[in-house]
Design brief:
Blueprint (H helix, E strand, L loop, with lengths): L7 E3 L7 E9 L12 E3 L3 E3 L8 E4 L3 E17 L4 E9 L2 E2 L3 E2 L3 E15 L4 E12 L11 E9 L20 E3 L14 E5 L6 E9 L27 H8 L18 E3 L1 H7 L6 E7 L7 E5 L6 E2 L12 E3 L4 E3 L2 E10 L2 E10 L2 E4 L3 E7 L7 E2 L4
Parallel strand pairs: 12-16, 13-15, 15-20
Antiparallel strand pairs: 1-6, 2-11, 3-4, 4-11, 5-10, 6-10, 6-11, 7-8, 7-9, 7-10, 12-17, 13-16, 14-15, 14-17, 18-21, 18-25, 19-20, 22-23, 23-24, 25-26
Length: 384
């Protein structure tokens, strides 16, 4: 992440010894397409004002490395480089790491890399060159259990506005917002998806992360202190706004000096708030940050736009207990045979269990990986 600098800057001068000198490649800045927002290119990449006070964002194409690497640094050629930030993420298989400032170590080696260039104010970016290497260290295997916390939720509202990833907010929309840029899914994806449930567990929604907020923008409170971007003195799972509101942390203010008026650590789009959970007012909810756990198989919801019903049994006759929003990317526990359903991917009697008593009709989801059986033989599906 670029905060200060001169015309050309090298990001990520970490005091570690690379295991190998890896790939180096330029980011294509001139191709501004559907997953980019608030930027335009005319000899240089600039914010075009569409994002308002927020930075414009360009998400690069994916780059496959010749060898796995766990660090990607960025060299930026820009006027006013303090208005430029470069974040990167990586994956092996289907699971992306969170977005990290260029130069920080990924939690594990990755094979595919993507960059996100954020441009604010009058900054003009002429070139960004990325380079990958691998640091000699012992890597811990990824956890198979996703992190989860009880968090105060508020309603997003803002119908007609635009999220930080460029999504136009519609009435009764379905997405969530966390106060960190680390977990924002590119437009039209659910790479980072959360399960949000009432505290009694009677209703849940699985929804993609498309926005940043409430209150802060770099408070990844679900992460341990050692990797939390801000406020590492707070306990894991405690949003800064909660500590400020309840305990007077930071003088009761957020990172921008505003007085915190509620302890919220998540905003819920109106459809998620009213229809998915049935809330009528701001409330504590139980959140599982699904991208923080590794999965052997994943369901990617694909509908004509409406959310997919979540059922307690593998049948449409079972009363819905919530939703899985379009684009949500959800780990699968196992699959079972149930009522036949016709959907986006044809007609199927297969249902995927994605949580205790949570079933989705597979006719509406694209599967990646090997689906464990609830009984019987495993299936390997990679349909599109």
């Amino acid at each position: 992440m670029i905060r200060h600098g001169v015309l050309a800057i090298l990001l990520g001068m970490t005091a570690v010894v690379p295991h190998f000198a890896g790939d180096s490649w330029p980011v294509e800045l001139s191709t501004v397409d559907g997953d980019d927002f608030g930027v335009a290119y005319a000899g240089a990449l600039r914010a075009d004002g569409a994002a308002g006070e927020r930075p414009g964002v360009l998400v690069s194409t994916e780059h496959r490395l010749s060898s796995p690497a766990d660090r990607v640094r960025a060299r930026v050629d820009a006027d006013r480089p303090a208005g430029v930030e470069v974040d990167v993420r990586g994956r092996i298989g289907e699971d992306w790491t969170e977005w990290l400032p260029a130069g920080e170590l990924f939690p594990r080696a990755v094979q595919v890399v993507q960059a996100r260039i954020s441009v604010s104010g009058p900054a003009a970016v002429r070139a960004v060159t990325l380079s990958a290497d691998r640091v000699a260290r012992v890597e811990s295997p990824p956890s198979t259990v996703a992190l989860g916390y009880r968090i105060f939720a508020t309603r997003e509202g803002l119908v007609g506005g635009t999220t930080s990833n460029g999504h136009k907010i519609v009435e009764r929309d379905h997405f969530v917002s966390f106060p960190s840029t680390k977990s924002v899914s590119p437009k039209g994806t659910g790479n980072y998806t959360a399960r949000v449930c009432l505290t009694d567990g009677t209703r849940c929604e699985y929804a993609p992360v498309w926005e940043v907020g409430p209150w802060n923008t770099h408070d990844d409170y679900w992460n341990p202190a050692g990797s939390r971007a801000q406020f590492p003195e707070l306990p894991q799972g405690v949003p800064e706004a909660q500590a400020a509101y309840n305990d007077g942390f930071n003088g009761g203010k957020d990172s921008r000096g505003r007085t915190v008026r509620n302890p919220a650590g998540v905003d819920l789009a109106d459809g998620t708030f009213w229809d998915g959970l049935g809330l009528t007012g701001n409330s504590y909810v139980d959140i599982t940050y699904l991208w923080t756990g590794a999965a052997t198989a994943t369901a990617i919801v694909s509908t004509a736009g409406a959310p997919l019903n979540l059922r307690p049994n593998p049948a449409t006759s079972a009363a819905a207990i919530g939703y899985a929003a379009n684009y949500a990317q959800i780990p699968i526990e196992c699959s079972v045979s149930g009522q036949s359903v016709s959907g986006t991917y044809g007609t199927s009697a297969v249902w995927d269990r994605i949580g205790p008593g949570h079933y989705l009709a597979e006719a509406y989801v694209r599967i990646t990986g090997v689906v464990p059986p609830c009984d019987g033989l495993a299936r390997d599906q990679r349909g599109g």
